[in-house]
TrEMBL record:
This is CbiQ family ECF transporter T component. It is a multi-pass membrane protein. The chain crosses the membrane at residues 48-65, 72-89, 133-153, 267-288. InterPro entries: ABC/ECF_trnsptr_transmembrane. Its main location: membrane. GO terms for cellular component: plasma membrane. The keyword Kinase does not apply. It comes from the Bacteria. Keywords: Membrane, Transmembrane, Transmembrane helix. It holds the Pfam family CbiQ. It is found in: Membrane.
Amino acid sequence: MDLLRSLPIGLYLDKPLTWLHKLDARVKFVWLMAFLAAPLLANPWWRLGLVGFLMIVTLLARIPLRVWRQQMGWLVFLCVLVFIITALTPDGLSVSIQPRLPDSTVNLPQATDYNYVLLDKGRLFVTRRSLELAVRISTLIFTLIYSTNLFLLTTAPEEITAGLENLMSPLRRFNLPVTEISLTLTLSLRFIPLVLEEVQNLARSIRTRAIDWKKLGLKNSAKVWLTVIEKILDNLLLRAEQIAIAMEVRGFTSPDEHLVRWHQLRLGMGDSIALFALIPFWIARFLVGGMD
């Protein structure tokens, strides 16, 4: 199994080049912050609308089905699992109801069709509060993870660091190391595939040795996995040291003295339309989303 393809976490899709790829990294970052902030104190209907909106954006961008399946498959399974567990979990309102009139009195029919308990089948007990909480948690997990993943999928690491450095440039007045932060972020994003590659190589080495885990037992199996983890850390530290030596040899002693323009930032017509779309987005958030 190829971890670099089966775990598309933080990986960039270079082809096909969609309209999301063509948007400026700063514009996409602003939209990402909007998706992260919009669910806060919003009602469940707005949260469900955000999930649908992200799916529509993915379809309109014409991202390949194989990538879409990898990006959304495991996340949908996780959110559905969280939804089911939360909906069936007691809502925490342990209120004991005592009738005001004696039991012998004939109860009058309820004036409305409101029922706090939506499903009562023995162990399957769902209330309005537990269902609403399940919708909140599952949609929040989906929105936070998938919006970030979609941002990383359609934005190259160089564009991300260049955009963040440009957005954080006013912080230079407070003597914050903006260039160092952007360079560290670039190296971190580039280091993710190296981590997956090291894990993949060690997993293949263990598989080729055909280890019988049942004969080893729990204690010996734990020793083997501790050895594997130690080997992974050693290899990653060695990779990091090699990168540092390569940068020093090329004269990268200070990011301020050796500033490299990874990407040229330009705002086009599509970026202006995307920024203008934020206005009706937030208007709909306060009119439709309401307050929780």
